[in-house]
Specification:
By secondary structure, this protein is an alpha+beta fold. The protein contains one helix and six strands; from the N terminus they run H-E-E-E-E-E-E. Strands 1, 2, 3, 4, 5 and 6 form a six-stranded antiparallel beta sheet that branches.
């Protein structure tokens, strides 16, 4: 073989190695991007699910306070922070610290509404921990005396 053919063969084999290394690098970057996208999507789906569940529990809390008010307005007269308790037949207000499904903590704050004598502002907050982040959902309503 003449020397120019040897040089071409030598350079082309090196060139193939460089192309292979570049191809592996590109494939690796694409795979990393895909995996990070999947992980991000899973985190967002979990947060969305947890948030939807928390909103449902908060709405339940508002409805429970409404039913307690319907049973007797005097039961929600005292401004304070509460939790809800169900004894199998009726709901009642209890000391704070209600844990739902071993994940969510529901807190109910009752304070005076716009017409202090005839209305109450009710704030229901559901909080939970997601990884290292604290999350919460808060719903607020005004309940009036029905008389």
């Amino acid at each position: 073989m003449n020397s120019s053919k040897k040089k071409r063969l030598y350079f082309s084999s090196g060139q193939s190695l460089i192309e292979a290394v570049i191809a592996v690098g590109v494939v690796t970057m694409v795979l990393v991007a895909l995996v990070s996208g999947v992980v991000s999507s899973l985190k967002n789906a979990r947060y969305s699910r947890d948030n939807s569940v928390a909103v449902a529990y908060a709405q339940e809390g508002i409805e429970v306070i409404r039913s307690i008010r319907d049973r007797g307005y005097e039961e929600i007269q005292q401004n304070d922070t509460y939790s809800l308790s169900y004894n199998g037949s009726i709901w009642s207000l209890t000391t704070p610290g209600e844990v739902i499904s071993e994940k969510y903590t529901r807190t109910v704050v009752i304070s005076d509404g716009p017409d202090a004598a005839n209305s109450k502002k009710v704030i229901v907050t559901l909080s939970w921990k997601e990884g290292s982040s604290d999350r919460e959902v808060t719903l607020t309503t005004i309940l009036v005396r029905l008389e």
